[in-house]
Amino acid sequence: MSDHNPKEPNINTLSIDLTELILSSLPIPSLLRASSVCNLWRSLISSPSFTSPSLSSPWFFLFGLHNTSSRNNQSFAFDPLSNSWFLLPSLHDDSSSSSFLGSSGFLFTTTPKFSYTPLLKSSWRLTSSLKYSRVNPLLGVFHDGSSGVHRGFKFIVVGGVRFIGGLVDIEDRLAVEIYDPNHDSWELCPALPADFRSRNSSQSLSSDLLKGKFYVFGIYSGFVSSFDMRNHVWSEVQSLRPPGIIFSFMISCNDMLVLAGMCNAPRGPSFNIWRIDERTMELSEIYLMPQSLLYSLVDDEEDDKFASLKCVGMSNLIYVFNEEYHQKYHACLCEISADNGKCSWRRVPQLPLAVNKFS
């Protein structure tokens, strides 16, 4: 017999709105545990409309591909507020895809079919077919202000590599498509400018959405162009190459556009961050990574030791990590104050040991 007094409040009798309000006040560790309590709580937490102060700081995600079984793939997230890594709920993807991407709270597969899932939800939604299926495209999530079941969010897919009969298709590698979940439809948009044709995948391009524009930047070429999300037109291609730059990434941070990358400076190798004037596209250096942190990301004995460094960012955080040796070398992050613009650098804790099982 239950000890519960029917006159006292019971969480199961609370309205959905009040339940969601309570869940939104939980810290990240409790929020992840709560998502496994029942279907209702998981549905509320994984909803695109769910907001929480705990989720306001951008997470850093790594997706582990198991060497032999896709059912043993695992996803990990780093929460900067608690300075901890978390194992995300299992993702049961039946497409046997090895092409995974993440953006703005979603995970995606792009081939052989396009599908997506919110990060705290374990079921994938298969979309209608892309007009041009591709591997390693650039991908962004944006809101167009429309209503509907999916709260007005849409996906933009840019570039990537397309295969036909096991061979790379050289004709349609610049394709741009926008997906509307409310209608399960893809809209073909003006193609990426031809200047990006030789290197058009996420391996050689970086991208970011800021103030209604989708920016595409050549990590090695320095070419940059922006796609106007409202008018569906590309801007003129320009070149951003600071003196001594080796490679760089374009990201948005604190509502500003920045460039972050490796330089061969007179004082030696350095990792610099520049602010980009969105109107003139001129650069001004604002931050420099401490040398001790930079060399903690690489093997000092290797000749090309900085080549595998990558950089991502959102809100007020910039993450720098070693893509090839993420188990061996800790990532680091730069936190930029919205109040005074000052930055603080720190190392990210070591990945969970379970990651060592993955490729």
Automatic annotation (TrEMBL):
Residue ranges of every copy of the F-box domain listed in the record: 14-54
Superkingdom classification of source: Eukaryota
InterPro entries on file: F-box-like_dom_sf, F-box_dom, Kelch-typ_b-propeller
Pfam families: F-box
PANTHER family (alphabetical): F-BOX DOMAIN-CONTAINING PROTEIN, OS09G0555300 PROTEIN
The protein's name: F-box/kelch-repeat protein
Organism: Hibiscus syriacus
Lineage summary: Eukaryota, Viridiplantae, Streptophyta, Embryophyta, Tracheophyta
